[in-house]
Design a protein that fits this description.
Structural class: alpha+beta
CATH class of the largest domain: Mainly Beta
Oligomer: single chain
InterPro entries: Ba3_CcO_II_C, CcO_II-like_C, Copper_CuA, Cupredoxin, NosZ/Cyto_c_oxidase_sub2
CATH topology of the largest domain: Immunoglobulin-like
Keywords: Copper, Metal-binding
Function: Subunits I and II form the functional core of the enzyme complex. Electrons originating in cytochrome c are transferred via heme a and Cu(A) to the binuclear center formed by heme a3 and Cu(B).
CATH superfamily of the largest domain: Cupredoxins -  blue copper proteins
Pfam family, one: COX2
Shape: elongated
Number of domains: 2
Catalytic activity: 4 Fe(II)-[cytochrome c] + O2 + 8 H(+)(in) = 4 Fe(III)-[cytochrome c] + 2 H2O + 4 H(+)(out)
Radius of gyration: 21 Å
């Protein structure tokens, strides 16, 4: 089979670009530890209200300017709904769902998780700037999806 010289050039450029792209993704994922939010722990979605720590959702201080925020998502709300966090605090989020798949995205941050029933998702974020942060469900979860939100006040 005969290939034109410019076809060979474009195949080499395309192949090289693909190898470069995959190398960058590989280094980012494995060497730098950039991985998706964890969901290695499981929970019975029918017994979320009876299982610690989800039986008492809320913000708990666990260290010097370090907090754990336990949240439960259900159609069409997050519990707790209003959270007060001090500026500069590192917050470890633990979130699960009682019913269907929900999203968990904090506007103007890189916090973004898919919350599935039966799994406990966790992610950590440091709030360096004071202000109001909106938690949104970014996965369609039913007829009231558009009103599913919560608010974090950082002061």
């Amino acid at each position: 089979m005969h290939m034109h010289k410019y076809e060979k050039w474009w195949l080499l450029i395309g192949g090289g670009t693909l190898i470069l792209f995959l190398s960058i993704i590989g280094v980012s994922a494995f060497a730098m530890g950039h991985t998706p939010p964890s969901d290695h722990m499981t929970i019975n979605p029918a017994k979320v209200d009876e299982t610690a720590p989800f039986n008492e959702p809320g913000l708990k201080k666990i260290g010097e300017n370090e907090y754990e925020l336990v949240m439960v998502s259900q159609a069409f709300s997050f519990t707790p709904n209003d959270i007060q966090i001090p500026k500069g605090a590192t917050v470890h989020f633990k979130v699960t769902s009682k019913d269907v798949v929900h999203g968990f995205a904090i506007a103007n941050t890189n916090v973004n998780m898919m919350i599935t029933p039966g799994h406990i998702n966790s992610i950590t974020h440091t709030f360096d700037e004071a202000g109001s942060y909106l938690i949104l469900c970014n996965e369609y979860c039913g007829a009231g999806h558009q009103v599913m939100s919560a608010k974090i006040e950082v002061s």
